[in-house]
Design goal:
By secondary structure, the protein is mostly helical. Helices cover about 55% and strands about 5% of the residues. The protein has a domain of about 50 residues: Orthogonal Bundle (Recoverin, domain 1). It has a two-stranded antiparallel sheet. Helix 2 packs across helix 3. Bound molecules: calcium ion (CA) (2 copies). One calcium ion binds next to strand 2. The site of one calcium ion has 7 residues, from strand 1. It comes from Nocardiopsis aegyptia.
Length: about 70
């Protein structure tokens, strides 16, 4: 069983309005807060990569699933 505490903390950090979903807008805002440039298209692509049911929003489960798959 992987330790998901760190993922949950990261998710909560990105989920600015704490509604349990990460939107492309929240992702773009985070990138901007971190001093990164992020276009709307880049944010949408990032969300699409994590979004498993295609509703355009990333749940904690989808986020953890993505992180688990993409971390050695
Ligand atoms: Ca949110
Ligand atoms: Ca989704």
């Amino acid at each position: 069983m992987p330790d998901t505490t760190e993922y949950e903390a990261t998710f909560a950090f990105v989920d600015a309005d704490s509604d349990g979903l990460i939107s492309a807008q929240e992702y773009a805002d985070l990138m901007h807060r971190l001093g990164d440039t992020c276009t709307e298209a880049q944010a949408l692509a990032a969300i699409e990569a994590m979004d498993q049911d295609g509703d355009g929003l990333v749940t904690l489960d989808e986020f953890i699933g993505y992180m688990s798959d993409h971390e050695a």
